[in-house]
Amino acid sequence: MMTTHSPYPVGTPGTPWGDTERSEWRSRQTRQRSYEADVLSAIERLRERFDVVQYGQLDYAPDSYPLFAIKSRGWRDDLPVALVTGGVHGYETSGVHGALQFVDQHAADYDGRVNLLVAPCVSPWAYERIHRWNPQAIDPNRSFREPSPAEESAALMRLVVPFNDRVLVHIDLHETTDTDESEFRPALAARDGKPDVPGEIPDGFYLVDDSENPQPAFQQAIIAAVEKVTHIAPADANAEIIGSPVVAPGVIEYALKPLGLCAGMTNARYRTTTEVYPDSPRATAEQCNAAQVAAVCAAIDFALAHGG
Length: 308
Description:
Blueprint: H1 19-27, H2 35-46, E1 51-60, E2 63-71, E3 81-86, H3 93-106, E4 115-119, H4 124-129, H5 151-160, E5 167-175, H6 178-192, E6 206-210, H7 216-226, E7 240-241, E8 244-245, E9 251-254, E10 270-276, H8 285-306
Parallel strand pairs: 3-4, 3-5, 5-10, 6-9
Antiparallel strand pairs: 1-2, 2-4, 6-10, 7-8
Helix pairs in contact: 2-3, 3-8, 7-8
């Protein structure tokens, strides 16, 4: 449903933020959960079965966050690569835990068929604070470009560079939440000094395809798998989802690379961004995680079946 917003508490309406406003915004962010307890402990348990590589370190005084990716133990240079990313927006919980759940429950199914590379929590500072941005009020998911303004994004790009052209499929796990409308869109408008235009949050799962390299059959294979787990978002009265035309049930398109989106960071033929809706009365946290897992498995299965 449509909502109206009060003026955002940081900054002056119509004036983009400077250092003072960013500092004030940062002072309002508090740690609400633990990256170490929730994510690093889960990664540690996976070390027995998979290779774990540290690909960066975020130093946001007084906090410091090691960045880890999980790799197939039997990595082979003659196999294609499947890239799974989660937590690019740290507050999108099922992206993080769905990625970890996929590794734990299903990654072994792909041994000898594809090299798996999973970065489950790209933005740990934001994960702990349940936020979309990093401490500089930068959105990592608009920062996958050179040079990147976000170290979270830059670190992941450095990790992937050696085999960028071997990535067959990349699935980036996200959520669309009620706080997108109540907090994050108003914050974005305030940060950029632009009008805050209320929007509508879709009820259900949807995908973002690449308008410059659309793969409709790939997207529909994922939708078919996920609708067995949770419901698919319908189009709104304008035949849109979050302001973009619905091109197929549960699918919209963005220009991934020009927008600096994570799903556009490689030259993979098959790429998509998932969007789970955790605030629906029709979905549980377990269903949201399971939807992400189903999406990852369907994406890799389709890519392997249809090749490059």
